[in-house]
Write a structure and sequence with these properties.
- The structure holds two protein chains of two kinds.
- By secondary structure, chain A is of the alpha/beta class.
- Chain A has eleven helices and ten strands.
- In chain A, helix 1 packs antiparallel against helix 2 and helix 6 runs parallel beside helix 7.
- Chain B is α/β, with parallel strands linked by helices.
- Chain B has one domain: TIM Barrel.
- Chain B is 37% helix and 17% strand.
- In chain B, the strands form two sheets. Chain B has a seven-stranded parallel beta sheet. A three-stranded mixed beta sheet of chain B has the order 2-3-5.
- In chain B, helix 6 runs parallel beside helix 7 and helix 9 packs across helix 10.
- Chain B is globular, with a radius of gyration of 19 Å.
- The chains are: A alpha/beta, B alpha/beta.
């Protein structure tokens, strides 16, 4: 289908889950009880996405704190450090690489399988990419960054292949750090190649807005089917780059600004889509928000997605009408 | 030789330490405590952070920028002409800040850091230096929706921040530090940068330093050293290349050696640090060297930040002995 709709991955955690996570970290709640609440929240996330009418779903990452720390906690070779400020009054525990990195056990498979069991629509398997894992950890062990990145690539490959085995038709490997260091994009490409080499599932990577002019069109060499990008919060400026050098992959087109409380209007989203369709083909595009929704409220997330789905539907109908004529 | 910090310091300790400030801010946001109460906690934490720096062995302190949400907003909120927009990444880090948007003519209206500086200076057992984010970096990290050209914005900010520096000079600090990391990413702008730095430092009698980080001086050497500052702070971790570049610096000028990595938890070997200082002291007399981390320490957990400062202080005092 042209102009399928999806999301980038995270959803806001319901209040009861936030509370439970805090209790768990203080040792006041056991792992099983937390897991039950994570499952409850996952059910709600799936239900919301079905209600809104999205085509490709996510599990909402109810089990994750930080996108790097979560995976690091579940691999060998990492220790979790103290709190580091991310912005404002928000802190996270940044991992430290203290030994050779290895994946010892499945990390997201159970969560994926549970989410997929709740719906007949495809649920994306969601992973953090090796380059970003390395870039956003402290490194006290590896002398060469490349060795760390490639060991991480092996670890993520194992998880990705097992996700595919568990039935994932879409696997997203997020690499937001790629755009922060243009000079290292070759390494990121090489590492992602290790992860996706044997996958038959559709592969996606999400990259946040950074020094984009410096990594484009090089970025088209990333060994995935689809590159997911933020368009809305940069006023669709990236389209100018695509005009100069065609975008040759599928694109996850971010049309919703996830950092703003304001709900976009249907017209705004439609206008963005029409603009994008001047330089991209409808078959190339999957429509989604700019980034994960975890910093929005539940109500804002639902309202924003509703607008996105309706706007996409109308543009799709316009296109189909034009085809019939 | 002076052991010093570059700027910010982690705002909360890890358990069993108490994250006082984090809790206070959360309560303030929920309107459970007054602004006055929040200020009192900020004062308390600033006091702790000053004491920690002294305990680590530093000779010249900062106030840890405990009250700063980030290096941009602290100034943009009080300089006229700015509004504050959404989150954006700070250079290549995994840290974010709310981007200032220039919506009108930027103008210095009131002292920004004077009260905070006075508070720290009054409490600390060692000299404290105030820090100002420079006009070029502030302009680069903001979005310009008002000025027809970037140059005009930079020059107006230079005037505004010059007034801020003059106001701080009134408190009689030993140094004023200006932060300009962004110039390392846009070296082609040096002519504009030089004009701005001349305006920024005009009529200042106090000793001034210019700190940069996240890069090396390739393309800025030797001209950077002709700028009107007494000392130049370099990130020699992410800008290791600067070591090979610098053959000499003008008579009377000093260097701030950022040789302890403020972005990685791994602790440096003290012996290697001393070796580096020894090498540099053949170019710059040890009396004109400041030894410090590569940038602000907020990228690290508090306890490791402390260890990094202790390393800085030990390396400085050992190097001094060896050189003597």
């Amino acid at each position: 289908m042209m102009l399928s709709t999806t999301t980038v991955g995270s959803f806001p955690k319901p209040g009861y889950l936030l509370k439970a996570r805090a209790q768990y970290s203080r040792g006041e709640l056991n792992k099983n009880d937390l897991y039950e609440l994570e499952k409850k929240a996952t059910q709600e996330v799936i239900k919301l996405q079905e209600k809104v009418g999205l085509d490709i779903l996510v599990d909402g990452e109810m089990y994750r704190g930080d996108m790097v720390t979560f995976f690091a906690e579940n691999m060998e070779g990492f220790r979790i450090s103290g709190l580091v400020r991310s912005y404002g009054n928000r802190y996270y525990r940044k991992p430290i690489v203290v030994g050779k990195v290895k994946r010892l056990k499945p990390i997201t498979i159970g969560y994926f399988a549970f989410a997929q069991s709740l719906t007949s629509k495809p649920v994306k398997g969601m992973l953090t990419g090796p380059y970003t894992m390395a870039e956003w950890s402290f490194n006290e062990y590896y002398g060469r960054k490349e060795d760390l990145v490639l060991d991480l690539a092996e670890a993520v490959r194992g998880e990705a292949e097992e996700l595919e085995g568990a039935g994932a038709k879409w696997i997203q490997i997020d690499e937001p750090a790629i755009s922060t260091r243009p000079e290292e994009i070759e390494l990121a490409i090489k590492a992602l190649g290790v992860v996706t080499a044997h996958l038959r599932a559709k592969t996606v990577t999400h990259i946040c807005y950074g020094e984009f002019e410096k990594i484009y069109p090089k970025l088209l060499e990333l060994p995935v089917d689809q590159v997911d990008l933020e368009l809305a919060n940069s006023n669709y400026d990236l389209l100018e780059l695509f005009r100069r050098h065609p975008f040759t992959k599928e694109i996850g087109l971010g049309v919703i600004d996830v950092h703003s409380h304001l709900i976009e209007t249907k017209e705004e989203v439609k206008e963005g889509l029409r603009k994008a369709l001047e330089v991209l083909s409808p078959q190339q595009i999957t429509v989604d928000p700019d980034c994960g929704l975890k910093t929005r409220t539940w109500e804002e997330s639902q309202a924003k997605l509703q607008v996105m789905v309706e706007a996409t539907k109308e543009v799709r109908e316009e296109l189909e009408g034009r085809l019939k004529e | 030789m002076i052991a010093t910090a570059v700027g910010n310091y982690p705002k909360i300790p890890n358990s069993p330490g108490e994250p006082k400030l984090r809790r206070a801010i959360a309560k303030f946001e929920r309107e459970e405590i007054s602004e006055e109460n929040l200020k009192r906690i900020e004062d308390e934490v600033t006091k702790d952070v000053l004491a920690e720096q002294v305990r680590a062995g530093l000779d010249l302190l900062t106030d840890g920028q405990i009250r700063w949400e980030d290096g941009q907003i602290y100034f943009a909120r009080k300089i006229g002409g700015f509004s504050i927009d959404g989150l954006i990444r700070y250079f290549d880090t995994n840290t974010y800040y709310r981007q200032p948007v220039v919506e009108g003519k930027v103008e210095w209206k009131e002292p920004i850091g004077f009260r905070d500086y006075g508070f720290a200076q009054g409490l600390a057992e060692k000299p404290v230096k105030p820090v100002i984010t420079g006009p070029y970096t502030l302009a680069r990290l903001s979005q310009n929706s008002f000025y027809p050209s970037f140059e005009e914005l930079v020059m107006d900010l230079a005037s505004a921040l010059n007034r801020e520096a003059l106001s701080l000079q009134g408190a009689d600090p030993p140094w004023i530090q200006f932060d300009e990391p962004a110039i390392l990413k846009h070296k082609e702008d040096f002519p504009l940068f030089e004009r701005a730095m001349n305006v920024l430092t005009s009529n200042l009698k106090v000793k001034t330093s210019l700190y940069t980080w996240f890069g090396d001086l390739e393309g800025l050497y030797p001209q950077l050293f002709r700028l009107p500052f007494d000392l130049f702070g370099l990130d020699l971790v992410r800008g290791r290349g600067s070591f090979e570049l610098i053959e000499e610096i003008p008579e009377g000028k000093g260097l701030g050696l950022g040789i302890v990595d403020a972005r990685n938890t791994k602790l440096e070997s003290g012996r290697e640090l001393v070796e580096i200082i020894k090498r540099v002291s053949q170019i710059v007399p040890p009396g004109r060297l400041h030894i410090n981390p590569s940038c602000g320490l907020e990228y690290l957990p508090r306890e490791i930040a402390y260890q990094k400062l202790a390393l800085v202080a030990q390396a400085a005092s050992q190097a001094e002995e060896v050189i003597r």
